[in-house]
Amino acid sequence: MLAPGVCMSITEARYINDGKGTLVNPEKFNKQDYQQLKQDFFKHRYRYIDDTFPPDNTSIGKVIDGVVWKRPRELVKNPNFIVSDISRFDFGQGNVGNCWFLASIGALTYQKDILNQVIDSEQNFEYGYCGIFHFRFWRFGKWVDVVIDDKLPTLQGKLIFVQSRTSNEFWPALLEKAYAKVCGSYADMDAGTLSEAMMDFTGGIHITYSLEKAPPNIWHVLLRAAKSQSMIGCTTPHGEIPGENKVAPNGLVCGHAYTVTGVTQVMSRDMPVNLVRVFNPWGFGEWEGDWSDRSSLWETVYPEERQKYLSVAIDGEFWMTVEDFCKNFNEVTICCLNLNFLDENITSVWTASFHNGRWLADITAGGHETFEKTFWMNPQYRVKIDELENDCSEYNILVSLMQKSKSGRRRFEKNLFIGFSVYEVSALLWKRGKFPASFFNTSRLVKKTTFHVDSREVMEKFRLKPGEYLIVPSTAEPKQSRSFILSILTKAKINFEEVDAEQLQRILNENLLKVTGKLNSAEFKHLWDKVTMYRDIFFHADVDHSGNLSLSELRNAMIASGLRMGDDMLCLMALRYGGSSGNISVESFISLVLRMNTMARKNFLSNTLQMLPLSFQWMQISMYT
């Protein structure tokens, strides 16, 4: 486990020094600096054109004849970024199947704090204007700042994609363009899931409920979620022809994504009725059943309630009972920053642990549990639950596994089938290090994902009693390489660590401390000077600001530290000190170089590290003794 002090200070320094994807200091997507670009183009009175997402068919993703890319000032006389305020009624869907994205925007407009994280509302077409805009998205564990120009694709003078209800308001079209850039093109936004866009807006955790098997308290869950900082969306099942948005007789669109915008209870003939309000991102097309805009049932409620909740307008928004909601929609997705809505006690606190890992073919990619000979090779995470909260009820832990994108083209990205298993670790088992194949033959499987699925993320929520557990994320087949993020949210107090993770604390204890186990002030200063020096070398070598060293970056860092090695040696070094992540973290790099120093002092090496060549014999001694 990471302990307070040296290791935590280094981790904090990594975030401070390289601005690793925080909201305060997001990563620059494609290494484009919004402030610097805006300053340069405004100074020289040029209009910005983004050469990484050019105004041509490559950015659309397919050939469309007659497309003309125009800036808002070429479309209307007085363009505005935002007119009055941002609302779910500001836009309608264009000629791309991204209702999942637009439904998520509809949910986003309800959460102003989150909205302000994504959209810089100070942007405009007047002061300092030079045709450049930016937006922020959460992508695979990091916040990124995405820069775009304001040239938009048009046909016959009209926008092709998202349409603004107010002709001179352009935040929807520009936000859509920024997200299209992240996905690879506009066409890459075709077909997706609500959870994908909602997570990219929040960095939160999502929970999806199948409404065919909805829990009895689903309305109360939605009510609590609506009262907390959550985004809620829902989808209708596909029709006879998948992908065809056919309008059913009840007014709902088949295979379509909607936003849940309200949850309430009204009194009808002195009987409570639980209602859900739903919004169609098309901006039209509404439910025509009970409690719809023109339903006579509204005459059975008190005039005050009717006036408060009913709005008869062609705006795509409507009410329906929770029973009709569960009958006509197949899934509802809740994306949140806190899981407190799961409990009756909305003040309950959940804590989160996150870890970046990787499956590497032939090294840490063993396939699912039926591959008995290789399953143990997968990354392993040991969790110890010390105690349970008094108010723990049905769930006290949620595990999420998200696979990271390998390329910049969303529609060409083929997700692997992923899942995870949870095993109980006997209290008598004090083993340190990776658990062998024999452990999985004799240990109790507590929980696993129902299936390995080809989704960006899989998630399960369940209840664990106090004790130790081993979480093993896996791909369906062995020898499949992919990076992932493992998230664990719990109401119980836990200790969490990757099995065999290289920790600086362990290196210090085993190799650098004297027999007394203590460092005097001079020794500590000497050690700390080395730690900070190697930390600085790491950040200088990490040229892509990923927070990890690739093999080429590791080579440069080793040279800067006074060491040279061949390709085979470098790969072995990455395997030994990179753990399951494949790449070298700042903690692992410092651990590696400090161990070299230790070996040098023990005369396994020469007394200086000046451009020291490393051999396989040295590798065996320094890495495995």
Automatic annotation (TrEMBL):
SMART domains reported in the protein's UniProt record: calpain_III, CysPc
EF-hand domain span: 529-564
Pfam family, one: Peptidase_C2
Keywords annotated in UniProt: Calcium, Hydrolase, Metal-binding, Protease, Repeat, Thiol protease
Record: active site: C99, H256, N280
InterPro entries (alphabetical): C2_III, Calpain_cysteine_protease, Calpain_domain_III, Calpain_III, Calpain_III_sf, CAPN3/13-like_C_EFh, EF-hand-dom_pair, EF_Hand_1_Ca_BS
Classification via CDD domains: Calpain_III, CysPc
GO molecular function: calcium ion binding; calcium-dependent cysteine-type endopeptidase activity
Gene3D superfamilies: 2.60.120.380, Cysteine proteinases, EF-hand
Residues annotated as domain Calpain catalytic: 47-338
Any one of the GO BP annotations: proteolysis
A single cellular component GO annotation: cytoplasm
Top-rank taxon: Eukaryota
Family named by the database record: Belongs to the peptidase C2 family.
Record PANTHER family: CALPAIN, CALPAIN-14
Protein name: Calpain catalytic domain-containing protein
Species of origin: Esox lucius
